From TrEMBL, chain C:
Phylogenetic lineage: Bacteria, Pseudomonadati, Pseudomonadota, Alphaproteobacteria, Hyphomicrobiales
Protein name per the record: Na+/H+ antiporter subunit C
Keyword Membrane part of the UniProt annotation: yes
Pfam families for the chain: Oxidored_q2
Main localization, broad class: membrane
Length: 484, 562, 112, 492, 320
């Protein structure tokens, strides 16, 4: 018995059960959320070398599941986010009015996403990652389609392209090395054309999935149009899988062959994403579009961290900064989308200018939005701050002033657009408000935002957690002995 | 026993403050007005009985300040106490129908406290605090009747007072620093004498005290403010409060060490004030204005003498007693003259003649009529004043006499058949008596010389300017010559108008400038916005994604190959 | 009949090259085609090319590696699943547009 | 056990904030009780701590919030000075705010953030490391924003936006500065200043500029002062708080920490950074005064006055002389007490009689004599009129400037005093000497409990500012405490 | 097979692919795509990968082709003929340059890798432990069963995703009738379907059984089953079920669920998807049969598309 398999198996069981239960499947989340949170916690507390060969088949062939720090943090955050979003969706219908199909299919898709994300975070197998990537993409596109079909179709096409690029890279790796396991590739990889080509293709494909500028085009329309719980899942989780796979590729499988210049390509794109996403976010007059562009900017930080991690003498801080940024963004962005959904519903409009009076009408929801904004802006005390602080420290220590500048500027720009939205809530109401509050509805975003803030207090523990079995920390993973 | 008597010093300032506090109690205002004379009594006691040069430390107050009564200070303190006392008695009657007795009592007592405190402060911080108290809180007294003229006068007063305060503050800072951070007045004065003293310290102090004391170009507030106040307030303003400025100079001028520049400037300004102000006084239409200018003139004399002494490096002991004595006489006499202005309308017939007689004697005394107290103190001043100074002082009798004649001429007409109330006449007479008597009494003590030692004949001979003045007045009256009508505050009006015009111009320029700045902001935002939209549309295309995918893959490969 | 080419180009490489060209063709079509259904078709061609590379490079002199074969089968199934979803979306989008258009036309007519 | 004392000072307002947020409006009495109770308890704690500190004890609480970066709360004398000030003024402001709002909208929010501000200000004071300082500094920004935008009208929102733009830009500059410095010398603890010997002078200068620039935004140093007058859109208790204790003081306090506890006097002097900073502070002093003179709105005039006055603290810190330090530190307290008096009075005038513009002040002294008397004391103190406390600050600053061979500063002080007089005295003139407009109804100033709660805090601070001046050399006076700090820390 | 055969096959593949991609008419494009798929199947045969060949022909060409035809038909009914649209020349040239460069790079990479069956050596010794012969099945259902497990859920997820597209008012409901509109044709299809369905069932069952040792397996078999079901539905032999039928749900979930259950049961034996010694073959067969059933139904419903509003209740969002 190990959380490594249960974390994938439980959501799959839930998906099957949801299909069997039909409409009654909604309540399943009441069981799944605590169960998964418990499993995720269990995972986080496992000994550092926790690993697992599926079916006990040895490596070049089999699939290795492993709980490193990144996986632990991401899975914990995923459990919290999906749990909260699910509980929220229990009382706040995630579907468009009248779309019974969406109401029913929402749940199996969520569990598919959950299983896919967890499987992806845990596995070290590149092909297995492809399958999980598709699980997540499929669920994500379907969830996005609940809002805008056109946006979802565009998302689908571009995501498909990304998947194929990744698959092509995997194909080259399989052919070249006869294995797709990251830990093995770390020992085998050589900087020849095929490997580089594979790395380039996989990277480019995954950047699409991660929505890094300039491949982010699909994200804002899809995330902005989807129902709030769906948007929350998309922005929080779907884009993170691409990021995690890239981390596996660049820092675990191929650190030996990725040159500093290549890292600068990613870092540069990340920096550009921060600035571009922020500028676009500032220009939006619809709340959810703003939040979606904020995701574009926030994703930029993740990649801006790549050269910082690689360039650090002691990469622990930058690594933790990168990981915590992902986690903090998950929590905060999910909270923000949920809150935004409630606010827009109460405002009966989708523009920022419609938000007037909400600070009075639904203070807790606006508080959740505000707390999430604090984390996204990187203001203390929050997970976002801890992450940016670590990254900024690393950037300055390395003399990477350009990145440091972008980190600082990005926070400021975020403040400009997020406070703009927040301020709109304080404006007097133009029409009477019918607040949408109460119970899980408000509690979910508030809890998530609160967690994003609380993260700021547990910095040391989180940094230590992120460092578990990190690629830079020491020798490669000691594989468990196969059963006799 | 001595220790107990030193406590008179803090009591001298705390007692009026207590009275001021009582005035704040609702309904106590009129009562406190009656109690005004009580204020200076502890100070009087202190001046008489408190031991000299025995500092009283007040730990914890301000910067660990203290009080100290010097011999010179005692004369100032005593004179001021007498003046305030009688003026208080006068005020209690004069203002008995006043609409704001509480306010008057409050500020009267506060100013009193400040005024007395100035004379007994031992450290510069306390000194400055008292000085500010007397300086600024006199403002409500000036504008007490709320007439437009008073308000205008008050504004002028306040502007110059604040300017003076700042000058003094900065001067004291510089001086204190020059003295190694010491705050004792003696130490600071010694520090000012050092070559290392900041060059700006002394000029700033002279300017600051000069404003208060009516040094010539800085005197403009005085002729407008003194007449504006109620009569008793005018009396103390001109008689006692102005002395605070003089005392400041007395306390801080580093006498004994030649300071040529500062001394000569002070001399020139002081003596020119002596004559110019007196001449301006002749041109005034109001009795109080005449007196105010006369004060400027008299104070000019004091400051001229101080300037001479400063430039010459005369020892303090040779100068200060004379100055103190002169100030005492002037304060009491001027107080009496002001009270006389208030009495004049109330004195019909015989009373008026009596009044005029006393006033004339006082005027002659001020002018230096031999055998009167004024001549005595002037003669004391001539020693430190140097040769030229002595001549000038002698000549000033002419101008002073003219001014006094003018004063008598413009004294308000009496309403028929009025007789002054006792409690107003008594203070007047008491002050007049004190002015004429006290210098005689103290002369020997203070200067160490006998008041009668000088040759009477030579004194009479020196009084020729006074005789000339009498002739001139007689002539003028005979021909019906009228003096030119000069405005109160002479140069003040034109300067104010110029200043107002300048301010308006500056305002307009500023406004125009800021408007032009605001206008020139280009509006390009929309264009950039459209471009951004277009870029974003491109990114949303699958084709773009595909090409970018290839480009990024290529870039990663290329970058790895580098 | 043996072309001299066969000396330098094994069958595995030949199919792999074909796969590479298929990927390129598919990509080109994906970029230049506008209709989503045609793009979907292009994506399928790209996928086929990739599978071909994957499989053919596992073609040894005596046997074909079962590992890439299994991956290809998995890939094909995933591809068909996605294609089905994509096709359904394309059709639904067309339906929605068609449903919206007459209403818009009616409005236009009513207005004029 | 007393190691937790600093933590308690943080947690108490947090508890009050939570209670305020949580209690619904109908339980406002409980909320008020909680706020006042916590404020009183804090006062007791601080009094106790002061007594302990007098005995030389220094409390410290430490927690490693990131590897290598400690979160340190440390109550050294300087911290205690600021803490005492904030705790004392907060109690009064709370009383005042309760009366001021009475039954306004959104009060749970207001009091919640209000308490978060206390928390942040206390935290800023007690921060033992640069990072801890930054954390609270930023929290302060965030907690203040909803207060500035409290009214929610166009003006307030605009003010909030401007406030944030300035302060966030400032804090990132500050963050960049300290991180840069940390990357060179390791974590910065105020108690043990870092060894800067190996760092190139240019780098140090740049870092100094970044940090001071960042802190200078909150301290409203020219040209970063723009937010402050705008923030006047906030309700009066907020203005009082922003100006007197929390925001501007945090900036000024930070500058003091930077100069004395991070760089050290020697390094600052060596780099020649003191004089330019003093010059900038001087420019701010004069500029703020001139701008104040041009305002027609009462609160705006007070705001520009704050711009001017806070730079005295910076000036004192940058002059690097024993007296100047004392002057700066003591002005931190004096300005706080006097300015809060002025703002509470301005708020009371607006609240009771609707007086906002200076032109409306006519006759206010007759109708609200206690308020105006308190106002007058504050104003005279600002001018530097003895014996109100402001005079003591100016005195020390002046002497300090001379000690540091910067006699020109004395001229600045003099000019500023004149300008202060020029913009404050007309207010007093109007209030006391001009008749009230005929259409203004007569009021009884202290009729109800609420009126007394509104006005008496200001009267008390006015008395305190008088007392702080008159009894300046008592050991527990602000001056005494500032001297203790200076002797203990900076004049070695 | 000779090199020349390989070469010609490759050229034909490229040719059909080119036509499929660039021919104007959509139906022609799809037809060529199906041809392309079949040629690909041949290629896989040429590569000695029969399992893949079966999958490619059945799924890659067959199911995908039907899917595309059906989609095209539905689009055509809506007035969208899905023809090639003109793109600007600069875009074409740019794309051409980019793709050509990319192909060159890719080709160079591909050529740098020697084709060899590296992992065959690893797989071969493990096969006896499983008790089955087909190495591909071994990889699919044992060594990398985890992939396959997830994949089966992907397929299920795809159906859920398709269902989620159902228009308002169509839930729960049946997919649009894929039946022939032409009556004679429908009758032919009907008859054919009555015949084919049982045949398909039998054939599929055989494919599954064979899959253990010979080429074949659950996916290929499932496709055959789906084909049979679809043809039967076209002819009206069977009606497509409503999406909320419990039996249907059970059929869909059965395969993945059993797979998952067996995988979880393996935890008792040491870990996820661990087959106890000696039971591997039996378990694999169980998985294959259940999976085949579910895959068949899933694929058939995938092709059929999302439920549509009941014809008796006209819906404004329905087909025009």
């Amino acid at each position: 018995m190990s959380p490594l398999d249960l974390l994938v198996a439980v959501p799959l069981c839930c998906m099957a059960a949801a299909l069997l239960l039909g409409r009654a499947a909604r309540g399943l989340i009441l069981l799944a959320a605590p169960l998964m949170a418990g499993l995720a916690l269990w995972l986080a507390l496992l000994p550092p070398d926790a690993a697992y060969l599926v079916g006990q088949w040895e490596l070049p062939l089999g699939i290795l599941l492993r709980a490193d720090g990144v996986a632990r943090l991401m899975i914990l955050a995923t459990a919290l986010v999906i749990g909260a979003v699910g509980l929220h969706a229990l009382v706040e219908p995630p579907e468009k009015p009248g779309h019974a199909a969406q109401a029913e299919t929402f749940w199996p898709l969520v569990y598919l996403l959950w299983a896919g994300a967890n499987a992806g975070f845990l596995t070290t197998d590149l092909f297995n990652l492809y399958v999980t990537l598709e699980m997540v993409s499929l669920a994500a596109v379907a969830l996005a389609a609940m809002g805008s079909l056109a946006a979802a179709l565009r998302y689908f096409m571009i995501a498909l392209l990304g998947s194929l690029a990744y698959l092509l890279g995997v194909a080259l790796i399989v052919a070249r090395y006869d294995t797709v396991d990251v830990t093995l590739l770390a020992q085998l990889a050589e900087p020849d054309l095929a490997t580089l080509m594979a790395l380039g293709l996989m990277t480019a494909g995954l950047l699409i999935k991660a929505a890094l500028f300039p491949m982010h085009g699909w994200l804002p329309p899809a995330h902005a149009a989807a129902p709030a719980p769906a948007s929350a899942l998309l922005s929080a989780i779907a884009v993170k899988l691409g990021f995690v796979i890239l981390v596996r590729l660049w820092f675990e499988a191929f650190p030996a062959i990725t040159g500093p210049a290549a890292l600068q390509v990613l870092g540069g794109l990340g920096a550009a994403a921060v600035l571009y996403g922020s500028v676009q976010a500032m220009r939006q007059d619809r709340l959810k579009a703003l939040v979606a562009y904020s995701t574009v900017a926030q994703v930029g930080y993740l990649f801006l961290a790549f050269p910082l991690v690689a360039g650090a003498i002691d990469p622990g801080d930058a690594w933790a900064g990168m990981t915590l940024q992902a986690v903090a963004h998950m929590l905060a962005k999910a909270a923000m989308f949920l809150a935004a959904g409630l606010m827009l519903k109460a405002a009966a409009g989708e523009r920022i200018a419609d938000l007037g009076g909400l600070a009075q009408a639904m203070p807790l929801t606006v508080t959740a939005f505000g707390l999430a904004a604090v984390s996204l802006m990187g203001l203390p005390p929050s997970g976002g701050f801890t992450a940016k602080f670590l990254l900024l420290t690393a950037a300055i220590e390395q003399g990477a002033y350009l990145y440091a500048g972008v980190l600082i500027l990005g926070g400021l720009l975020a403040a400009v657009y997020l406070f703009g939205a927040l301020a709109a809530c304080f404006a007097p109401a133009t029409t009477p408000r019918t607040p949408v509050t109460g119970g899980l509805r408000t509690a979910a975003p508030l809890a998530l935002a609160g967690l994003a803030i609380v993260m700021g207090f547990g910095g040391t523990a989180l940094v230590e957690l992120s460092a578990i079995a990190a690629p830079w920390a020491g020798p490669a993973l000691i594989l468990p002995e196969p059963a006799p | 026993m001595t220790a107990d008597l030193t406590l008179l010093l803090p009591l001298a300032v705390l007692w009026p403050m207590l009275l001021a506090g009582l005035a704040l109690l609702p309904g106590w205002g009129p009562r406190m007005l009656m109690l005004l004379p009580l204020g200076p009594l502890p100070a009087l006691a202190a001046a008489l009985f408190a031991p000299r040069d025995t500092p009283v430390a007040l730990p914890g107050v301000l910067l660990d300040g203290g009080l100290d009564l010097t011999a010179t200070g005692a004369i100032f303190l005593g004179g001021a106490a007498v003046l305030w006392f009688w003026a208080g008695v006068y005020a209690a009657v004069y203002l008995r129908r006043d609409g704001r007795p509480a306010a008057f009592a409050l500020f009267w007592n506060l100013v009193l406290a400040g005024n007395l405190g100035v004379f007994i402060a031992a450290d510069i911080v306390s000194f400055y605090v008292f000085f500010a108290l007397v300086s600024l809180l006199a403002y409500p007294l000036v504008i007490h009747d709320r007439q437009p003229a008073s308000m205008r006068a008050g504004t002028v007063y306040l502007v110059l007072a604040v300017t003076g305060e700042v000058a003094i503050l900065v001067g004291l800072m510089l001086a204190s620093f020059g003295a190694g951070g010491a705050i004792g007045i003696e130490a600071v004065r010694a520090g000012l004498a050092l070559p290392s003293a900041h060059p700006a310290a002394l000029p700033l102090l002279i300017v600051g005290f000069g404003i208060k004391a009516g040094l010539m170009p800085l005197h403009v507030w005085l002729p407008v403010a003194h007449p504006a106040a109620p009569v008793p307030a005018s009396a103390v303003l001109s008689g006692a409060i102005v002395k605070a400025g003089i005392f400041g100079m007395v306390a801080f001028l580093p006498l004994g060490t030649p300071a040529a520049v500062a001394g000569n400037v002070l001399t020139i300004l002081g003596f020119s004030g002596l004559f110019l102000a007196a001449l301006l006084a002749v041109g005034q239409a109001g009795a109080k204005s005449v007196l105010a200018y006369s004060t400027v003139s008299q104070m000019g004399l004091v400051m001229g003498v101080l300037g001479v002494a400063l430039a010459a490096g005369s020892a303090p002991a040779t100068v200060l007693p004379a100055v103190a004595l002169f100030a005492l006489h002037h304060g009491l006499a001027k107080g009496a003259l002001f009270l006389g202005v208030g009495l004049a309308p109330l004195c019909g017939r015989a009373w008026r003649w009596g009044l005029m007689a006393v006033l004339a004697v006082l005027g002659l005394s001020l002018a230096g009529m031999p055998l009167l107290a004024g001549a005595l103190v002037k003669s004391a001043m001539k020693d430190p004043a140097g040769a030229l100074g002595a001549v000038l002082i002698g000549l000033s009798a002419l101008t002073t006499a003219l001014a006094m004649a003018r004063y008598l001429a413009v004294l308000p007409k009496a309403k028929p058949r009025r007789r002054p109330p006792l409690l107003m006449a008594l203070p007047f007479l008491a002050l007049a008596g004190a002015a004429l008597w006290l210098p005689w009494l103290l002369y020997a003590d203070v200067t160490g010389k006998s008041p009668l030692a000088a040759d009477l004949a030579s004194k009479l001979a020196e009084a020729w300017p006074l005789g000339l003045a009498v002739l001139l007045i007689a002539g003028a009256v005979a021909v019906g010559l009228k003096p030119p009508a000069l405005p109160e505050g002479d140069a003040l009006g034109p300067v104010q108008r110029r200043a107002a015009a300048l301010t308006a111009a500056a305002r307009a320029a500023l406004r125009a400038g800021s408007r032009s700045l605001r206008r020139s902001r280009p509006r390009k935002q929309a264009v950039i916005g459209e471009d951004l939209d277009r870029i974003e549309d491109i990114f949303r295309e699958g084709a773009a994604a595909a090409i970018l995918l290839l480009a990024i893959a290529g870039a990663v490969v290329a970058a790895s190959l580098i | 009949m043996d072309l001299p080419l066969s000396d330098i180009l094994s069958a595995g490489h030949l199919y792999a090259l074909t796969g590479a060209v298929l990927v390129g063709l598919g990509l080109y079509a994906f970029i230049t085609q506008r209709h989503p259904l045609r793009q979907l078709l292009a994506v399928n061609v790209v996928g086929a090319g990739i599978f071909l590379i994957l499989g053919s490079l596992g073609r040894g002199p005596d046997a074909t590696d079962p590992f890439p074969q299994a991956l290809v089968i998995t890939g094909i199934v995933v591809a068909v699943a996605l294609t089905a979803f994509g096709a359904a979306m394309i059709v639904r989008q067309a339906e929605t547009r068609a449903a919206a258009k007459p209403a818009a036309d009616d409005n236009a007519r009513g207005a004029s | 056990m007393m190691t937790f004392a600093p933590l308690a000072l943080i947690l108490l307002p947090l508890a009050a904030a939570v209670v305020s947020f949580a209690l619904p409006e109908r339980l406002s009495a409980w909320r008020n009780a909680a706020n006042l109770g916590v404020a009183c308890v804090k006062l007791v704690v601080v009094t106790y701590l002061l007594m302990q500190a007098e005995a030389g004890l220094v409390f410290e609480w430490r927690y490693e919030f990131l590897p290598g970066h400690d979160f340190v709360l440390r109550l050294d004398p300087l911290a205690l000075l600021f803490v005492t000030l904030s705790v004392f003024l907060w109690l009064l402001t709370t009383i005042y705010a309760i009366a001021y709002f009475d039954r306004g909208p959104n009060l749970p929010r207001f009091f919640g953030f209000f308490n978060l501000c206390v928390l942040a200000a206390t935290g800023v004071a007690m921060s033992g490391t640069a990072i801890t300082f930054f954390l609270f500094y930023e929290l302060l920004t965030l907690a203040t924003w909803p207060l500035v935008a409290h009214k929610g009208d166009e003006k307030s929102l605009r003010a909030g936006r401007i406030y944030l733009t300035y302060t966030l830009a400032g804090s990132v500059a500050f963050l960049a500065g300290i991180l840069w410095l940390q990357s060179l010398v390791g974590p910065i603890e105020f108690a043990t200043p870092p060894d800067l010997a190996g760092v190139p002078a240019l780098t140090l200068t740049l870092i100094f500029i970044l940090c001071i620039g960042g802190l200078g935004v909150k301290a409203a140093i020219f040209p970063f002062h723009g937010w402050l007058p705008e923030a006047m859109a906030a309700p009066a208790p907020v203005s009082a708080l922003l100006h007197a204790v929390a925001v501007v003081k945090a900036g000024a306090f930070g500058i003091v920490r930077m100069i004395y506890d991070v760089y050290g006097i020697g390094t600052v002097a060596e780099l020649g950074l003191g004089v330019p900073l003093a010059a900038l502070a001087s420019v701010t002093i004069l500029y703020g005064s001139v701008r104040a003179l041009m305002q027609s709105d009462l609160k705006k005039r007070l705001a520009y006055s704050t711009v001017s006055q806070v730079s005295y603290i910076v000036l004192g810190a940058s002059l690097i002389g024993p007296f100047a330090v004392i002057g700066g530190l003591v002005h931190l307290v004096h300005q706080g007490i006097m300015k809060i008096t002025l703002f509470m009075c301005a708020g009371a005038l607006a609240n009771r009689m609707g007086i906002k513009a200076i032109a409306d002040l006519d006759g206010a002294g007759r109708q609200m004599p206690v308020t105006m008397a308190a106002f007058s004391v504050g104003a005279l103190g600002m001018i530097g009129m003895p014996p109100v406390a402001g005079f003591i600050s100016k005195w020390y600053l002046g002497i300090g400037a001379l000690q540091s061979d910067a006699a020109w500063v004395v001229a600045v002080l003099a000019g500023s005093s004149l300008l202060n007089a020029a913009y404050f005295l007309p207010l007093l003139y109007r209030a006391w000497l001009l008749p009230p407009p005929a259409d203004r109804p007569a009021i009884r100033e202290l009729a109800t409990t609420r009126d007394r709660m509104l006005i008496l805090p200001a009267a008390l601070t006015a008395l305190v500012s008088l007392g702080a001046g008159i009894f300046a050399s008592l050991p527990f006076s602000p001056l005494g405490w500032a001297t203790l700090i200076a002797e203990g820390g900076y004049l070695r | 097979m000779t090199f020349a055969f390989d070469l010609i096959l490759c050229l034909m593949i490229l040719g059909t692919a080119g036509i499929a991609l660039f021919v104007r008419d959509a139906l022609a494009a799809i037809a060529f795509f199906i041809a392309f798929g079949n040629l690909m199947g041949l290629t896989w045969l040429g590569l000695d990968a029969v399992n893949v060949a079966l999958a490619e022909i059945a799924i890659g060409a067959g199911v995908t082709g039907v899917l595309l035809i059906l989609a095209r038909a539905r689009l055509l009914a809506l007035g969208d003929d899905a023809t090639c649209s003109g793109t600007p020349l600069w875009l074409r040239l740019g794309a051409l340059a980019a793709c050509a460069g990319f192909v060159v790079l890719l080709a160079a990479s591909v050529l740098s890798i020697p084709p060899e069956s590296g992992l065959d050596r690893v797989v071969a010794p493990l096969m006896p432990g499983l008790g089955i012969e087909n190495r591909v099945t071994g990889v699919l259902l044992a060594f990398r069963a985890y992939d396959t497990l997830l994949e089966s859920f992907v397929l299920l997820g795809a159906l859920v995703a398709v269902w989620s597209l159902a228009p308002a008012g169509a839930w729960p409901g049946r997919p649009a009738d894929p039946g022939m509109t032409d009556a004679p044709m429908r009758r032919v299809a009907g008859t054919f379907g009555q015949l084919l369905l049982p045949v398909a069932l039998v054939m599929a069952a055989y494919l599954v059984w064979a899959g253990s040792d010979l080429p074949g397996g659950a996916f290929q078999a499932g496709t055959v089953l789906a084909g049979g079901l679809l043809v039967a539905a076209m002819g009206g032999t069977i009606g497509l079920p409503s999406s909320d039928r419990p039996l249907l749900r059970a059929a869909l979930v059965l395969g993945p669920a059993v797979f998952l259950a067996i995988g979880l049961a393996g935890i008792a034996a040491g870990g996820l998807l661990v087959y106890p010694e000696g039971m591997a073959k039996a378990l694999i067969v169980i998985i294959e049969y259940t999976l085949f059933l579910s895959i068949g139904v899933t694929l058939a419903l995938l092709v059929a598309g999302p439920p549509v509003p009941d014809a008796s209740h006209p819906n404004p969002e329905g087909k025009g």
